[in-house]
Design goal:
Elements lengths: L5 E5 L5 H16 L5 H11 L2 H8 L4 E8 L2 E10 L11 E9 L8 H15 L4 E7 L3 H9 L3 E10 L2 E11 H9 L2
Parallel strand pairs: 4-5
Antiparallel strand pairs: 1-2, 2-3, 3-4, 5-7, 6-7
Helix pairs in contact: 1-3, 4-6
Length: 184
């Protein structure tokens, strides 16, 4: 597929509604077919409301990066500085809490541009490890993260409504990422 002219910017307080809508849509696209409507609605109400996004945007330990093409948001990443599960060792870990590309934009370089920006922000903050969790049934995402240098370091349960699902914990050291960023 052809790459697009992707712009990455840091979200502002005015982006709460945009993040809520894009996050809910991409989350539903990922998990919707395998979960009940009631479970999806319950989870989305507690995770993607405008008010929740506004509160998260005001947290100094959280960074939202928005990817856009021709002024239209096509993906975003939420980074959080802080602790990691015991299976992930690092002095200054950073978590990719959310990492979404709008479905029509998958394969156009949005994910790669967002990942590069995530690693750049982590390196700027002297983080040594970047980690995330990914739904074990999302083979496309797992493959993408593996291509970006992440490896599976554990598992954890994920509760979605009335269902317990499993996530893979994936991580990578950032000394390699900083070299990668320096080399383009």
């Amino acid at each position: 597929m052809e790459s697009a002219d992707i712009r990455i910017r840091k979200a502002t307080a005015d982006d709460a509604g945009l993040l809520a809508g894009l996050g809910a849509r991409t989350f539903r696209e990922t998990f919707g077919l395998d979960n009940t409507q009631a479970d999806m609605d319950a989870y989305l109400a507690g995770a993607f409301s405008d008010a929740i996004q506004a509160r998260e945007l005001s947290d100094p330990g959280t960074i939202f990066l928005i990817a856009s093409v021709e002024g239209v948001a096509v993906g975003y990443a939420k980074l959080r500085l802080g602790a990691a599960p015991l299976s992930i060792t690092g002095e200054c870990p950073v978590e990719i809490v959310r990492f979404y590309s709008d479905r029509p934009w998958i394969g156009h370089g949005v994910g790669s541009a967002l990942m590069h920006a995530c690693m750049s922000h982590a390196v700027t903050r002297s983080c040594d490890v970047i980690w995330l969790d990914v739904w074990e049934r999302n083979g496309h995402a797992i493959s993408f993260y593996e291509r970006k240098g992440f490896g599976v370091v554990g598992e954890q349960e994920f509760v979605l409504g009335s269902d317990i699902q499993h996530d893979l914990l994936m991580a990578r050291r950032l000394r390699t990422a900083s070299e990668e960023i320096s080399n383009g």
